[in-house]
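User: Fold this, then the next.

Assistant: Folding the first:
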Amino acid sequence: MSMFGWRIGLCLFFCLFCLAGCESALLQQATPASSPPPAAASTSAQPEDVLAAFVAEWTAQDFPAMYARLASHSRALYSQAQFTDQYTAAHSSLGFDGVEHQLRSVDYQGATAVLRYDIAIRSPAFGQIDDSDRVMRMLSENGWKIAWSPMDIIHGMSSRARLIPSADFLPRANIYARDGAPLAQQGTTYSLYAVQDDMLDSEACLATLAVATRMEISALRRIFADYLGETRFHIAEIDQARYDSYREALAENCAIARSDGAFSKVRSYNSRSYYGQGIAAHAVGYIGAIPAAELERWQARGYSNGSTIGRAGIEAAYESALAGSPQRFLRIVETGGALIRELAGTSGSAPRSLSLTLDRKLQDFTAQAIADAVNYALPSWGALTGGGAIVALDINTGAVLALASYPGFDPQLFNPDTEYRLAAALQRLDSDSRSPLTNKALAEQYTPGSVYKIVTTLAAGSEGIWGRDEIFDCDYIWSGRGRFSFEDARELRSDWRLLEPGPPPPTGPVTMAQALAASCNPFYYEMGALLFERGPNLQVDYAQGLGLGSPVGLSRLGIEAAGELAPPREGTEAINNAIGQGSVGVTAVQMAQLTMLIANGGAFWQPYIVSHISSPGAPGYELVNEPLLAAQLDLDGDTLAVIREGMCLVTTDPDLGTAERVFGDAPYSICGKTGTAETLGNPHSWFVAYAPREEPEIALAGVMTHSREGSEVVAPMIRRILDDYWGYPQKPYPDWWQDPYIPVKTQSQALAEYLADN
């Protein structure tokens, strides 16, 4: 062998030794020499073909096929599992969506090929990531094989470096009420702890905590019972406003006060905070950690495993506006933290605040009135109710002024910063058969009972079935047998007055308006039969015209029930439907909408709760909703006047009005309708109203399930709400709410007892 040939051989041996012991990063320091390419032993694929196939398999994330293209020494350095893990980890950081390449050159040095090329990685998170002037080395091993290292993923990668994505979110934007008062903001939350042995009077403490936290006394008792007298335990969390309002009472009645040290009974943290301990939690929603099943989707948007997102209500529906998009970076960082390379970045967008139509004062009064009522009535119906809701709409715009669902929940439960003992707190939430997380104003529909008589009155009057001044004799008993073209399945039907102790005397002769005021069942049995005779679907048509049977359009708050309006198949069903029993189901929001239509003469304003994003004149301002007159209903003027007259008599007529005892002494005018809906258990209590009587402004509807009659439960709550809202002294809740519950008779029971005695 010549001296020149010996030197060439020695050189090749040295290069192959380096390839076997080093990563390709070391190989890339070699200077390629141009020489004719050797023939592949088993394939005609050239290095550029191998590169193209490798990139195509990379896009398809076919890692076994990619690994099969590695040179033997690379497979010795990296197992297939290690190889796959490197790519999947990088893809997770990149938000990988494919890769393209552009070959620059191929140079050969003996059995080695050096390829220079550019790649462009597609990433929904970072856009296109360009990695230019890359070098890949291939060895001739029964065909061209890749001398692979982590640098073949991204230039700068190695076994000692990591691909680190980061996203810098600005603080989440606030959610405001209509007057600019915050409902959700970055603020201080106070965690309350107690020691029972430190309390002078545990009953006084329970009463204070029930008001301050809006929790039921029975639930607080159960928490107290779980701990010994000397044990310090967590009770609840409240926002800054409620802590300021009840700080002195908590210290005096519960010995709950801030002190130095780790065992303070008042601790605080700064995080997302909800006004009034979440007075509008079912509308505003809450933030929480990203569920594991959704993590990949959120990571593609720049979120990380520790990020929080809107999980329900407005917080979830308007996540993009409230959170903005982060300023994002993709970096290669050495194990010690040194920056090797910055690959990509996006500028992001600023969070934008949200303004709702809710009136914070009215929302607060509504949530408090319901919580106080249930706590006060625990000896009676309060312990039996399945919960309920109260809704208030602006009569002249359709804006949602208040939406409270009961039982409520503390949105801080889902905040990762919370100090709640989560296992116990979530167990209490999950085991509550009343489903506290369900928005009972929207997602649940209920039998309406006598509030539906507004629909029947509109249908009967508009169709000329009964005259405005025509008299009906409202007795205890009604029978339709032999008077209509169909046969009522029930021979006799009774008035609700037979349910009352005594019973009180029959209503007697009434006009249509008086029949509505007295809620005379026999009159509405008659109307149901006559309407069915005129047209089987006539009653349903009027109900649909008033918005029943269809969602009102607030689905961004969550699930929205459509209600039930099944056309009666026979006259018996039509009679049942006429008094709001049978195959009729409505939501609280639908009944508030119906009341709005009666009050404003048929102006069908589309209900809405989100007004605008950001502030007028500020960057990113966006008008989301404004008053929208969806339709102007052509309601019969005379019948409308009858309904309004009847609803106003409900609250003012001492002989006929079913809610006169609640509102007869009110310092303001209000017109309404009570409803008591029979169920398999205790009845649902309903009350709908508009106020004031002249130039009405607000429409309200409320339901409290499995409680008592409408005049006995929801009507007093709405009286309390309006007293507070308009600044009048509160009318006390009825004293008898403190007495043991006396079951309400069903119509069948009352009729049977009456017939037995007569």
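Now the next one, as you asked:
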Amino acid sequence: MPSIKKKKSQLPQKKKDAPARPRNLRIFYFILFALPLVFLLLLEGVLRLLTDDPITPLVVRREERGKPFYQLNARVGERFFLGGVAAVPEVYPQRFAYTKPNNGLRVFCLGASTMASFPYELHARVSSLLQDRLQLMYPDRTVEVINAGMAAINSYAVVEFARELAQYEPDLFVMYLGHNEFYGALGVGSTQSLGQNRGLVRLYLRLQKFRTFMLLRRLIVAVRQGLQSNTNVPAGQQTLMEGMAAEKTIRFESEMYRRGLAQFRDNLAEILAIAQQQRVPIIVGTLVSNLRDMAPFASEDAPDLPAEQKRQWQKLFEQGWQLQRQQNYAEAKRLFQEVAAIDSASALLYFRLGQTHAALGEIDAARKSYETARDLDLLRFRAPGEFNKIIREICSTFSAPVVEMEEAFARQSPHGLIGHELISEHLHPNFDGYFLMAKTFAQAIRQHQELVPGLHAVEGEFDDQFLRDYSAVTLFDLQIGNRKIERLTKRWPFRREQFTFPPDSLQAPAVVRQLVEEYQANRIAWNAAHFQLAEEYQRQGKGEEALREYRAVMKVVPENDAAYTRMADLLLQQNRFAAADSLLQIAMKWNEQSPFVRAKLGLVNFMQHRFAAAAEHFQTALNLNNMRQAMSANDLAAANYYLALCRVQLGQLEFAQTHLAEVLRSQPQHDEAKRLLLMLQKGIEVKLEF
């Protein structure tokens, strides 16, 4: 049978759409990768509908009595801390005007804990001291100095702060920054670090504008805090210094050291670029630390030597230290120099050598040794000297003035060696130091006032003692700082033998120490403590000290009625009527609706025999009290009684009887009111004696 061959055209053919499989695969992969993105976009949309702005802003808008104002946000630090610290540091929630005055001079202070003025608070801070000086230098301007300094941050945070504050019409940035570069939030050696890649850190800060990212971040922080709670460190017991330092050994010229310098250089350049782009003048201070009275935190004894040479090194060093204690400084110096020739990596060696040079009167050599000791310190809480070189270099690039703060402190220190006369511990100034810092910044602003259009300072400098009195900083305020330093230096990394306090730094009367303890334990308000201390001074006959306590409250809480009225009472006791009147006029501008201020103004005018004006103030006080019910029965009785006396002097006898009846209605045993009312009812002529 003949075979039958199928034609090729009759063979089964593959479907023509088979080649489409690769295209379907691409669609599959696109959907696979797009679904998470769509999910994230949907989640971001839902979170935007349900939650506030993800970034905790530096500046927030607030209202009080229907009037808007701006305020620094105490919680802004949450953006930079990753958990694992006892408490996130806060910026002081300072207010400033919502609408900048036409004659306004608005200055923002940028920096970390030194600019925040640790350990002092409120009007003892460098920004308040600077505002005092600027307001006196430029009396035609309404001066605002707003302090955005915050503990435990570094240049990463300040970059963000500068960018945000540029939106609020600044006339000037004043910056002091650099000591926290290694251990501040996001620093290369910090527990709050994201690593040593600046690009990664900047990406992290940019991603914070997304709510999805911030949700993930909060989850990570919560987990991290949970892990932290399982450690041996009791919650809330760490100081910031203990909680922030991860890398406790950062050698001079090591890779991490160099990365810290590069981080500071790049961020400083970005801050100045922001200021330049936004046309905000900026001045930058060089960094100051305690050279003479602060031994290094951490030092290595000849780490790279063989064992035998290291033993020789240690033996010679101990011999030199023994000779120094015996005040045989020349021989001690010789041995220390011999030790340095063997190995020169020890920070403590150079600190001891600096002490011997200083004791021998070799000041330049002492300064160089102290600076080397600071730079070799393995625990980098003090910025090395190279940071000041970077500040000068970057500022020169951007034509920004440098304020030589280190030189200013050296000029005011014995033999030019900065120590405890101006520095509390390792780097934070004491009050004298902050006073000098404010003075130095103010002088720089005067010198470069052409940076701010229309700025013209009055001639001459103000006396330092006048400015100290003007600051209204009292012993209570200083003792608040002293107690913080005392507690800090009892903890790691301090050792008691490591540094010296000035003899009188912790001295204060028992009543002041007690009130500070109560204030820091939140058992008494700050202004109440000042009032209580003023009353104690009055009992002791120390009128001027009492007035200073009242001035402190008026400076910090100018709307506080009690400060003005209590101070006016004291001035009246001293027969200083004009001063009391001026004071109460200021108080009335702050609070026109206060019956207390009006009543005190009535009393001041009464004591000066200005009866018509006194009657008007007393009547206004009573009218205001009818609306607010703020005055006590005794206050009301006193106001009505003095108003009755005014009416008598003005010949308004019927009104006088009405007010006397009001006195007796609340205080039937008021003998003077009863006697005067009886005389008026009988038509007896009343002659008041003063």
